[in-house]
């Protein structure tokens, strides 16, 4: 069973985590067409190579981001979401 | 028991006799014998009957990995006799015969083999309905193997996790040396996993040289060193059954399943000797050479009196020397090759007067009394063919040395590839993942000095990865192994019965026919013919079949054909090993025992145990009627502790809730509760609850019992992106609570709560208060879920039982009685309240369940807003409506379908008989054309009984909501 | 004589202890098992392998971005990193679950005032992100101690809790017997290894059953608080 390097808890069995989908930016609410919105919700990029994913450590409810190679299944980096989301998000 | 034969051996204690029973007859063996060796010792050579043709079978590999020696115990079948130690009084039977093991009536099916070709079941029955009526029962009788004992209680199975720096699978030459090299760093914790009951692997029975001393010398030296090395732990009788990512291993030892994480993994699993394929190669008395060596050197059993050795490998000559030294008369060595690789072997056997026939093969083995009596051998005329003038040699033992196949399974499970080297005529494991290595015969290397060299290299690398290596890496040896001449080992016979796969009784023609029918890929050959699907899982036929298919289809090499995918488990294991202790997590409310004391019947809601109704088992309908009427007329109390609770606190608490839920919360007054509907980004309703504002920056939001954990995680994920100043805590277990409901609920509460104004003006409907109930700090929420005046009282969890007792005491004079989940569900149904994931499904959006009123139209954003806008523009395909059915008709159930004539127009989501309303009520999704009050629905109930329903307005009870707002 | 249900504060698990022949004494807000009949035998048992229910021992939690600041103002010593703990002079243990979340366990004699003082001094302050968690209600506290404790934990936990990988005052947040739990390794006053297991209080009866089963292999026994002091 794969090992996942959790930024908070260190190397743990992947059974301690649940997958939270690809990291994606929300399209512009005001201008996105229904097709664009449907694509955002229902489609994954599923790239060949590096993908950014949300993972949650169940016992601590800690969310973090992992960079994984979809070809080799190697997890190349994991970090706190604040590395990507550093500013407050507001909706007008 | 046979004579005074005794031979120095490793496992048996001839001073201790053991008596057991086989097929009704008493047999005596020694302590250390297994059932197969004890029977052989007593000249009982037939141990089982084969799968399809019921052919007599006996010892073949003696490894516990073939199916020729499966026997039946009283408590279970399919037990490998090779692995079953004899104990006094053990009762063993053969399997799968009619009549007796010796005279099996079903063996007549062997004569019909032409009518049972490969793919028989599919061809005979794919269009034919007669399987269920006629043939199924018949075939079940004469196929299949052991018998299950349904009364067998199983046993105490358990699991354990283990963690080691270096794990070595196998303790032969390679394993022992790898362990010693790895343990050179005293900081490294090394573990050896060995499937046998002692260390040594093939060193325990193999012969490595003409003199016959090397194997024992290696063994004695290495085992002694390993046993005195402190940082090496040994697990015997342990089999590694699976190797997963990052060196995660499943190891089975007796009734325990270990889950082992190895930082560095060294696979030294050895190899499997292969057989040869010729007519009657499955007779008792025909066995792998290593089986004969095991009989001799592990158990001290004479494998036979007169032996012939058929070999495609130099090792066959060494076996001849072993047998000769044990007093077995070796009649002939039949060598399929033109040349021996090491001439000294040929000289050694010739010196003993053993005749050798080169470039020859066995044409057929012959039986007398169902066991081997002689062989016919002849010159190989061309690939796969024997010359017609054959010579007959009397023998009762035929040893096969067909070469070797590495035990590649664990390596391939963990991601390695199995390549065929044309140069060396072997399958070799390649491309192992990082931190995983292989050494020894499992690595395709036979020469001890080369094995030693690789063990040093691998151990150094493993220690380097751990940061524990000393010195420089050892250099790879330049020594080369002798290449074994390839000899095609398969000889078809006009009468067939040349078995490629013994487990499945597959003959040469069966495999050829599968390929002929178009199943050319080895994966398809397997599935069409069942090749490799038996207990030995291809260990003894994978190599053979790739050779056979490649020879038939000249466009593909052996490597092109390859072998099928190796999947866990490696060897047989029990479901009990996976189940372990089988404990099922159960969540109990603090009031749990109040319910058991009050006679509750429980239902399982997720991991929670919830009281369904209070009364005798089976009396649910009566109890629901009684409990619900008591709520309408007096006062009832229900445990709502399982309800989810989230504390949302901080300057952005209201902003956060406003973004998650559909309605408007920014201006929610302190002291008020608001219905909170949660949708996901697709606009689908996924949860609901009540948001209580206790102060400007302090919210307590309830969620469904089953949804709260998911909802909590989603909240955290969103705020990880939004970075609002808000703290979210899942406090479900910190609080427990009850709902006191009924016209007398206020009176009851007033007796035990003095510091909150409970009047209708002081505490209006949908208000929230903090105060003290029965001396306990409490949160009170006035909600209308069950349709009567009611208060939810939430207290810190450990006060729950006391709270319940206080309420029951205070409510006595008002005839308070508990009500369960089933009554609660009826009460909310009467008010038309939906239950998430009962009345909603994976596509329900607010408009479908008449919740558009709860969607804030002017908010800048909430999760699901965009999707709801998109979907609302479309024509609705269904609506959730209320319906009623007269009480004289059958009560429909959830998921029953609604029709208009033949047209399917909907399905029921909730339905129950209402004692208060004296009719059956329910909710259903229907086609919008049938959603107006007054429309009729035809509901199809069990057994296709049709019931007439009428669509009505919601709610069913108290449409003015007067009762809950008292 | 103290009865198990004489206080308002009760854990459902008391009935299991009653069936085991427990004697109860008042402790904190509730009661606690003082022994199961023979506290001298239990004192010896603690050194080998024992299980005790410490639900009535006080505990409290805080989380939020301003929590380290507040706790420092309360003069509470804090571990410098997540998944580490410190033991205060009064016996309380402060475990750091993340950069902003702390879990404080009371001492076995219930004499330390740390938890009570923190509870008393904390108040909800607007715009100050330090929030109280009622760990004395949401969680239950068991302690598994003895020389065999390190052999029992691998039966129910997939994280390596053996020395040197896991040391005294290390914290592991992971799954134990299929439940999310916080595990703190510490020493009893005589040096015996002890694993403090904190988990959801609704699972107390289930977890007690799992642990009783797990310790049976090494002849472990439940003990009361007297044996631990």
Walk me through what this model shows:
The complex is a heterotrimer of chains A (92), B (966) and C (229). The model of chain A has no long low-confidence stretch (mean pLDDT 96). Chain A is built from 1 helix and 6 strands. With 92 residues, chain A is mainly β. In chain A, strands 3-4-5-6 form a 4-stranded antiparallel beta sheet, with no helix packed on it. A two-stranded antiparallel ribbon of chain A has the order 1-2. Chain B is of the alpha+beta class and 966 residues long. Among the domains of chain B are: 1-152, 2Fe-2S iron-sulphur cluster binding domain, sarcosine oxidase, alpha subunit, N-terminal domain (Ubiquitin-like (UB roll)); 158-268 and 447-465, FAD/NAD(P)-binding domain (3-Layer(bba) Sandwich), CATH 3.50.50; 274-403 and 487-493, 3-Layer(bba) Sandwich (FAD/NAD(P)-binding domain), CATH 3.50.50.60; 498-566, Orthogonal Bundle (Arc Repressor Mutant, subunit A); 644-731, Aminomethyltransferase beta-barrel domains (Alpha-Beta Plaits, 2-Layer Sandwich); 872-952, Beta Barrel (Elongation Factor Tu (Ef-tu), domain 3), CATH 2.40.30. Chain B contains 23 helices and 48 strands. The longest helix of chain B has 18 residues, at 448-465. By secondary structure, chain C is an alpha+beta fold. Chain C folds into 2 domains: 14-57 and 138-228, 2-Layer Sandwich (Gyrase A, domain 2); 59-136, Alpha-Beta Plaits. Chain C is 26% helix and 31% strand. Chain C is globular. Classes of the chains: A mainly beta (92), B alpha+beta (966), C alpha+beta (229). The interface between B and C is large, with 44 and 47 residues.
Structural key phrases:
heterotrimer, B: 966 residues, alpha+beta, Ubiquitin-like (UB roll), FAD/NAD(P)-binding domain, seven-stranded mixed β-sheet, six-stranded mixed β-sheet, C: 229 residues, Gyrase A, domain 2, Alpha-Beta Plaits, 2 domains, 8 helices, 26% helix
Question: How many runs of DSSP E, i.e. beta strands of chain C?
Answer: 13
Largest interface: B-C, 44 and 47 residues
- CATH third-tier fold name of one domain in chain B: Ubiquitin-like (UB roll)
CATH architect. name of one domain in chain B = Roll
Distance between the termini of chain C: 21 Å
CATH fold topology of the largest domain in chain C? Gyrase A, domain 2
CATH homologous superfamily designation of the largest domain in chain C: Probable tRNA modification gtpase trme, domain 1
- Architecture of the largest domain in chain C, CATH level 2? 2-Layer Sandwich
**Low-confidence parts of chain C lasting 5 or more residues at pLDDT below 50?**
none
Kindly provide the radius of gyration of chain C, computed on alpha-carbon positions and rounded to a whole number of angstroms.
17 Å
- Please, how many helices of chain B? 23
Q: What's the CATH class of one domain in chain B, please?
A: Alpha Beta
* Overall 3D form of chain B: elongated
End-to-end distance of chain B, in Å? 94 Å
What's the number of helices of chain C? 8
Number of strands of chain B: 48
Tell me the Rg of chain B in angstroms.
38 Å
């Amino acid at each position: 069973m794969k090992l996942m390097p959790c930024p908070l808890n260190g190397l743990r069995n992947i059974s301690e985590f649940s997958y939270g989908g690809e990291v994606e930016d929300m399209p512009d609410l005001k201008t996105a067409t229904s097709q664009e919105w449907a694509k955002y919700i229902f489609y994954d990029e599923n790239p060949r190579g590096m993908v950014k994913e949300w993972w949650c450590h169940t016992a601590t409810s800690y969310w973090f981001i992992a960079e994984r190679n979809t070809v080799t299944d190697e997890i190349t980096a994991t970090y706190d979401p604040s590395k990507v989301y550093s500013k407050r998000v507001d909706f007008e | 028991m046979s004579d005074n034969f005794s031979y120095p051996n490793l496992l048996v204690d001839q001073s201790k006799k053991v008596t057991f029973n086989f097929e009704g007859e008493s047999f005596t063996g020694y302590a250390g014998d297994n059932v197969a060796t004890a029977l052989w010792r007593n000249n009982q050579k037939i141990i089982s009957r084969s799968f399809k043709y019921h052919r007599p079978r006996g010892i073949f590999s003696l490894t516990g990995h073939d199916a020729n020696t499966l026997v039946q115990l009283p408590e279970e079948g399919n037990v490998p006799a090779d692995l079953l130690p004899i104990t006094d009084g053990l009762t063993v039977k053969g399997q799968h015969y009619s009549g007796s093991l010796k005279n099996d009536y079903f063996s007549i099916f062997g004569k019909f083999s032409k009518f049972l070709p490969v793919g028989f079941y599919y061809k005979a029955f794919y269009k034919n309905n007669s399987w269920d009526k006629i043939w199924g029962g018949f075939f079940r009788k004469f196929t299949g193997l052991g018998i299950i004992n349904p009364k067998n209680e199983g046993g105490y199975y358990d699991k354990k996790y283990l963690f080691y720096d270096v794990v070595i699978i196998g303790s032969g030459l390679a394993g022992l040396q790898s362990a010693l090299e790895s343990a050179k760093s005293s900081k490294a914790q090394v573990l050896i996993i060995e499937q046998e009951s002692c260390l040594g692997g093939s060193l325990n029975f193999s012969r490595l040289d003409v003199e016959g001393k090397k194997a024992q010398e290696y063994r004695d030296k290495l085992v002694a060193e390993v046993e005195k090395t402190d940082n090496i732990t040994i697990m015997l009788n342990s089999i590694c059954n699976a190797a997963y990512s990052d060196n995660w291993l499943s190891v089975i030892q007796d009734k325990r399943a270990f889950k082992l994480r190895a930082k560095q993994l060294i696979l030294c699993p050895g190899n499997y000797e292969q057989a040869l394929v010729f007519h009657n190669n499955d007779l008792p008395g025909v066995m792998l050479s290593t089986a004969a060596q095991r009989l001799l050197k592990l158990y001290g059993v004479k494998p036979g009196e007169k032996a012939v050795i058929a070999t495609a490998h130099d090792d066959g000559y060494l076996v001849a020397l072993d047998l000769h030294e044990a007093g077995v008369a070796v009649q002939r060595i039949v060598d399929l090759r033109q040349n021996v690789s090491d001439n000294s072997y040929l000289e050694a056997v010739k010196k003993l007067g053993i005749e050798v026939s080169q470039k020859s093969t066995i044409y057929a083995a012959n039986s007398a009394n169902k066991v081997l009596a002689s062989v016919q051998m002849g010159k190989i005329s061309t690939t796969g063919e024997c010359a017609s003038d054959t010579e007959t040699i009397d023998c009762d033992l035929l040893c096969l040395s067909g070469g070797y196949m590495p035990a590649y399974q664990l390596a391939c499970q963990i991601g390695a590839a199995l390549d065929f080297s044309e140069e060396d005529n072997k399958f070799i494991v390649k491309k192992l993942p990082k931190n995983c290595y292989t050494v020894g015969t499992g690595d395709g290397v036979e020469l001890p000095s080369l094995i030693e060299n690789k063990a040093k290299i691998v151990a150094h690398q493993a220690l380097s990865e751990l940061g524990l290596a000393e010195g420089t890496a050892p250099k790879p040896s330049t020594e080369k192994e002798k290449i074994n001449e390839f000899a095609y080992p398969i000889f078809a016979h006009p009468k067939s019965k040349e078995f490629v796969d013994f487990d499945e009784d597959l003959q040469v023609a069966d495999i050829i026919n599968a390929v002929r029918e178009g199943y050319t890929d080895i994966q398809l050959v397997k599935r069409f013919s069942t090749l490799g699907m038996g207990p030995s899982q291809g260990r003894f036929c994978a190599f053979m079949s790739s050779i056979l298919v490649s020879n038939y289809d000249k466009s593909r090499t052996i490597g092109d054909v390859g072998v099928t995918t190796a999947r866990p488990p490696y060897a047989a294991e029990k479901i009990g090993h996976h189940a372990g202790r089988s404990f099922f997590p159960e969540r109990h409310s603090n009031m749990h025992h109040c319910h058991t004391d009050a006679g509750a019947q429980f239902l399982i809601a997720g991991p929670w145990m919830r009281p369904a109704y209070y009364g005798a088992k089976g009396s649910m309908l009566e109890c629901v009627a009684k409990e619900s009427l008591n709520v309408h007329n007096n006062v009832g109390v229900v445990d709502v502790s399982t309800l989810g609770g989230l504390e949302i606190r901080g300057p952005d608490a209201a902003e956060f809730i406003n973004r998650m839920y559909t309605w408007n919360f920014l201006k929610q007054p302190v002291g008020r509760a608001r219905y909170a509907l949660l949708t996901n980004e697709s606009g689908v309703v996924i949860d609901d609850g009540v948001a209580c504002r206790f102060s400007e920056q302090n919210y307590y939001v309830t969620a469904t019992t089953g949804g709260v954990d998911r909802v909590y995680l989603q909240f955290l994920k969103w705020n990880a992106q939004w970075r609002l100043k808000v703290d979210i805590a899942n406090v479900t277990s910190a609080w427990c609570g009850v709902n006191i409901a009924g016209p007398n609920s206020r009176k009851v509460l007033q007796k035990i709560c003095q510091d909150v104004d409970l009047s209708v003006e002081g505490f209006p409907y949908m208000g929230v208060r903090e105060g003290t109930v029965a001396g306990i700090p409490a949160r009170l929420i006035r909600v209308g879920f069950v349709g009567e005046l009611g208060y939810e009282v939430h207290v810190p969890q450990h006060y729950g039982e006391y709270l319940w007792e206080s309420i029951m005491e205070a409510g006595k004079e008002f005839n308070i009685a508990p009500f369960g989940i089933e009554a609660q569900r009826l009460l909310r149904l009467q008010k038309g309240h939906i239950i998430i994931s009962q009345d909603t499904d994976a596509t329900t959006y607010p408009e479908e369940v008449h919740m558009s009123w709860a969607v804030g139209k002017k908010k800048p954003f909430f999760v699901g807003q965009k999707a709801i806008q998109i979907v609302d523009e479309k024509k609705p395909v269904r609506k959730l409506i209320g319906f009623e059915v007269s009480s004289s008709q059958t009560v429909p159930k959830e998921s029953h379908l609604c029709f208009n004539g033949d047209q399917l127009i909907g399905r029921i989501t909730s339905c129950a008989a209402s004692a208060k309303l004296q009719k059956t009520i329910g909710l259903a999704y229907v086609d919008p054309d049938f959603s107006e009050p007054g429309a009729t629905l035809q509901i199809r109930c069990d057994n296709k009984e049709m019931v007439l329903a009428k669509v009505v307005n919601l709610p069913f009870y108290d449409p003015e909501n007067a009762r809950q707002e008292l | 004589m103290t009865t198990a249900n004489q206080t308002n504060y009760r854990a459902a698990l008391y009935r299991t202890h009653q069936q085991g022949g427990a004697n109860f004494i008042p402790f904190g807000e509730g009661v606690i098992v003082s022994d199961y009949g023979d506290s001298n035998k239990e004192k010896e048992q603690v050194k080998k392998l024992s299980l005790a229910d410490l639900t009535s021992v006080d505990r409290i939690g805080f989380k939020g971005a301003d929590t380290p600041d507040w706790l420092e103002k309360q003069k509470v010593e804090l571990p410098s990193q997540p998944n580490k703990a410190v033991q205060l002079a009064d016996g309380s243990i402060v475990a750091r679950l993340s950069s902003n979340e702390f879990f404080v366990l009371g001492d076995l004699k219930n004499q330390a005032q740390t938890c009570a003082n923190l509870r008393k001094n904390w108040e909800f302050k607007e715009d100050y992100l330090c929030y109280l968690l009622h760990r004395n209600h949401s969680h239950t506290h068991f302690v598994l101690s003895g020389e065999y404790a390190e052999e029992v934990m691998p039966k129910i936990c997939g994280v390596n809790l053996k020395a040197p990988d896991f040391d005294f005052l290390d914290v592991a947040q992971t799954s134990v017997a299929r439940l999310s739990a916080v595990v703190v390794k510490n020493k009893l006053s005589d040096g015996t290894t002890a694993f403090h297991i904190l988990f959801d209080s609704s699972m107390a009866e289930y977890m007690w059953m799992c642990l009783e089963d797990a310790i049976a292999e090494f002849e472990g026994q439940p003990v009361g608080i007297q044996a631990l002091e």
